[in-house]
């Protein structure tokens, strides 16, 4: 029985293949591509040389230690070429990539003695990069990285060689699971170490990016095992899996194109956000400067709270654009030298809704930022505007922006009042913690302000009420801030 799908087949595949990039993944992929275009630095060269030399040494020594029989030359050459062909298929994953080498790597472990597997894999990965090595202005880097990428072969080779397993059999499945676990652990440990030493990518972040790598290897392992079983009677039968790499190559190119589009679109959204920030500054100088001050403090609070890169980007754009809706508010209300009356407050309170509507028209990631802008004047106890939501229902990014916004407003000179000191601002925020503000966010602000002065960016603090140059800022009395930390929430000191 057959059914006709309402979507064309290629459209369905493309929709399913559309990558959902996190901020961290997007950044790592962009950095990887930029790194490939520039000359290798000494640090990267040293790290890659150490890892490459180590894996090559293991590849040479392991067959001697295991007293492995030399493979048939034709079979060994076929395996090396097969590894090279399959490794040319790459799926971008964070700072690296996933490759369906498992299709051929599993047969390598059984068609010849497993102790030879690391050396075969090294040879295949280097062979795959010969064209890049010849064309690239960083041939040494290409060679070292290719060899260093072979670490995944060491663990399974050691496990199977130690278990004296040279032919595939389902009776050995516990040992196969151990070999697969050794592959994942070795690949993850060396990959995370290289990225941390070369790029400074935290191992925890790198681990989150390797999920696709593990999934690809796990799903292709049974197919590779079937190829190894077929090779029992005909050693070159494993080559029958190679046509599958053509299909995977199509998917990999499709994914690469969509990742490029996603990165370009993200850059366009960021450019739009920055442009809107400039529009805010041009429309009203105070509002523009205020927004940039809120950004700096909001990001430090976000870091203090341990937000990930996706949440941090929402905080950044939310802080930049939290006042974008004020473009629609009459200037006589924005700059009124005194308190606003009820009618004027009604108009002013529409600016968060107007801001969200503007950003919704931009679409994409700006829609999420619009939600933060709309909620940036909500209160912890539900008495804010425009929706009266409370507690955790208010997005965390909006709660952070609200605290940073209030701190900046209190320490900024306006037409109707002079700036107060940072100490006075902290007192006011702590008095309102639990009602207007999230207590945890207020405490994060206090922790940020309690840092040594050398770690406190001057953008946190507004200009004083005096006609000093714009470079002068009000810096906090750290001794007073230290005392404030000891005070209970909601208590004026």
Key terms for this structure?
2 strands, two-stranded antiparallel ribbon, 1% strand, Arp2/3 complex 21 kDa subunit ARPC3, 493 residues, disordered N terminus, 65% helix, Hypothetical protein af1432
Question: Would you give an account of this structure?
Answer:
The protein starts with 8 loop residues before the first helix and ends in a 7-residue tail after the last helix. Helix content is 65%, strand content 1%. It folds into two domains: 17-261, Orthogonal Bundle (Arp2/3 complex 21 kDa subunit ARPC3), CATH 1.10.1760.20; 284-486, Hypothetical protein af1432, CATH 1.10.3210. By secondary structure, the protein is mainly α. The protein has a two-stranded antiparallel sheet with strand order 1-2. A hairpin with a 2-residue loop joins strand 1 and strand 2. It has helices at residues 9-17, 23-37, 42-65, 73-87, 102-111, 117-128, 130-135, 139-148, 154-162, 173-199, 203-209, 211-230, 242-283, 285-304, 309-321, 331-334, 342-348, 351-362, 365-375, 396-410, 422-431, 439-449, 478-486, and strands at 91-93, 96-98. Residues 1-20 and 459-493 have low confidence and may be disordered.
Show the helix and strand layout:
Blueprint: H1 9-17, H2 23-37, H3 42-65, H4 73-87, E1 91-93, E2 96-98, H5 102-111, H6 117-128, H7 130-135, H8 139-148, H9 154-162, H10 173-199, H11 203-209, H12 211-230, H13 242-283, H14 285-304, H15 309-321, H16 331-334, H17 342-348, H18 351-362, H19 365-375, H20 396-410, H21 422-431, H22 439-449, H23 478-486
Antiparallel strand pairs: 1-2
Helix pairs in contact: 3-6, 3-8, 3-10, 4-5, 4-6, 5-12, 6-8, 9-10, 13-14, 14-15, 14-20, 14-22, 15-19, 15-20, 18-19, 19-20, 20-21, 22-23
